[in-house]
Structures
1.
Amino acid sequence: MKKKASVISKLYLVFIFVFLYAPIAVMMLFSFNSTASTYTFDSFSLHWYREMFNDTAAMQSLKNTVVLAVCTAAAATILGVMAAVGLFNSKNRLYKSAMMNVTNVPMMNPEIVTGISMMLLFVFAGALVRKSDVLGFWTLLVAHVTFALPYVILNVMPKLRQFDMHIYEAAVDLGCKPLKAFFKVVFPEILSGIITGCVMSFTLSMDDFIISYFTNGPSFQTLPIYIFSMTKKRVKPDMFALSTLMFAVILILLILMNVAQNKIERKGKSEER
């Protein structure tokens, strides 16, 4: 019975992975198709990759998306670490509990509600300063930081709880300034959580469509919005090539993140010994 249950569980796991990654595998396969067909693979070719790099609008949208994702990851990581440290050091349990619940709201709230509410906020703020074209890069950045920030906080907080704060207090007692003591003692211990939060912020910003759709302006278009505008006609196979490259980059980032986390954890264990 145990062997049969084990086989069934493995088959179920394989089915889940096939269901998740088969569409991506098909997209990657047809990105190398020599024709524009999406149901018949003719022959292997890099034609659509060359077409992708020649598409000025797509490249500009990709550049906008990467710039926005990098800025979002940087801002969310800095603010998230500061917020996590502040909440961790708070002595008021009621305040800490309330703030953690508020932090969870952007993750639990439907994206369409967040997008519409952020759009209304920006338009209202623009009306106060008598500016009609308020939507653009900065509104997108604020919106993306808003939904990415909780992920940084929730990745850093467990690392802070695992850390023995007496070591930090000892460093301060021995004459080290608080800020220097934080970067010398605390920061290396929570670095794996910071890296995870930063990469998650980057990937979430790259992937977001719904919130970006409501908070972007005509002057700044991200790649998901550009691809959505193409669906009214037909998505060309050069978008398969671009999506394949993006998937490869994100996969490499995740692998590097896991490698970096393992190195940090091994270093921490070796130092404890």
Note: The mean pLDDT is 84.
2.
Amino acid sequence: MTAFAPIETERLLLDRFRLSDAAMISRLAGDPDVARYAARIPCPYPEDVASRWIAGTLNGFTSGESFVFALRRRDDGALVGAAGLQPENGAAEVGYWLGRRYWRQGYATEAVRRLVAFAFDTLGVSRVVAKVHVDNHRSVRVLERAGLRLDGSGHMAFPARAMVAPVSIFAGAATDPARPRASGPRVVMVAAVVLVDDDGRVLVAERPPGKAMAGMWEFPGGKLGAGESVKAAAIRELDEELGVTLTEGALAPVVTASHAYENFHLLMPLLLCRNWAGAPEGREGQRLAWVSGNELDDYPMPPADLPLIPVLRTVLTD
């Protein structure tokens, strides 16, 4: 996997999960006290199940279907839990769990506040919701301290517990002046696409004069619009930039780049596409080049793109 620069909070790193985390997930999340009010955490939690869950989080991150972060302490890198968002129709649902040994230390509140800010400021959703078992009073306090407010009640399936249980629904709106605000550099989400032709070459575009990092080459794409999914942004951007038509079914997630620039933090899901309609042309004054995987080193790229090259070479040769 490529290097991944975590998003930082005061005491935590919001990081990508690694396959080596499976054993710790099994111990922390498989604790009966942790799993008790969780809808989808099995108890016990076998390591092979944790490994498959990790693979799902990595795929979901790059496809944009969900954003699940490993929570690690900044001082020693210890895995303390997980927190994530699932965006849908301009809103996002937040969920989390924390190892029992890390309860009552404010980590959950710190993580959820950062995720809520990420949902509003980076993903551009209009509303964040969370559903919590009515008896989970500890999580209720976390959500309240994170700026969410009681918004209703209902029932929800808890498949890991084989039951349907009453839940309290908490919510927050982007227009709420009291909603959490991110501290530190803003996080920018960009969807990038690797177009692969019949000869196995990939398309790269040169950043034109007048743009930041002009003269460097990159994979085409652009920023997500407010409430826009990763795949929807990729389709729109390549239509605008290159005049090509993509479909969501033709986009396959590869990996997500995470890089901390001086003034912002970039998250860039990279999608691969082998089928599209139209001949790519530089509609914004950018030069284009079709290059083999071995030729990518000849094209200077921004720091966030460089770690993607070896991953891409592996994908192209599979």
Note: The mean pLDDT is 95.
3.
Amino acid sequence: MIGPIIGDIAGSRFEFHNYRHKDFVIFSPKCFFTDDTVMTLAVAKAILSCNGDYTNLSQAAIDCMHEVGRKYPFCGFGGMFRKWMFSSNPQPYNSFGNGSAMRVSPCGFFGRTLDEVKELSYKVTCVTHNHPEGIKGAEATAVCIFLAREGKDKEYIRDYINENYYKLDLKIDDIRPTYKFNETCQETVPQALECFLESTDFEDCVRICISLGGDCDTSAAIACGIAEAYYGVPDDMRRSAEKYLEKDGGYLLNILREAEAAL
């Protein structure tokens, strides 16, 4: 699950200052982790807490997102999610924001079958993003991770997404000049999936996502989870990303290591 974290960190300094080229330093002192990383690890913690029995995963997701997220109140939460985060009675709010897809990668890594991946995705998503587009964006992302884990090639993955989720009839070079910041699943997930599908390796996926612009830390978090499952992650990039998680006694880093050890 280091892939989405790398994408998030690399994109953090460009989210509101887009750089639509691929020639940038991936890890910079100006980089930081955002809510994408925090919530990805919260979902991982929720899945771990279930010990393989996902009957109560939705409640575990609420508990862990509160527990982990409240430690980082200024990491970039959106307004509605922030209210949910600090509510004593959190309820789903019909969101179709891309936050559902940026945090779902643990479901794609832990799910043992395609149906289980979809079940896990739904259970961790519906607690906030219960709009059909929010559910769909998360599920499409988790499914791509699972298919990549299973060794399916890009043609198979593209066809599966085209048939079941989105029509991927876009090319990154064509949409880059006019692509704008958009926090919806509908205008983030297909683009992020295309970034992965056009990439040649993990690092190239990072660079394509950032060069696209828009909400690039989230696009990269989505795409790089799939890229991790498909390509693996270079050791030097892993080590660089982990350094950003060492604050607070390595709280987030410990969740990551525990989750990866359980896979």
Note: The first helix runs from residue 2 to 12.
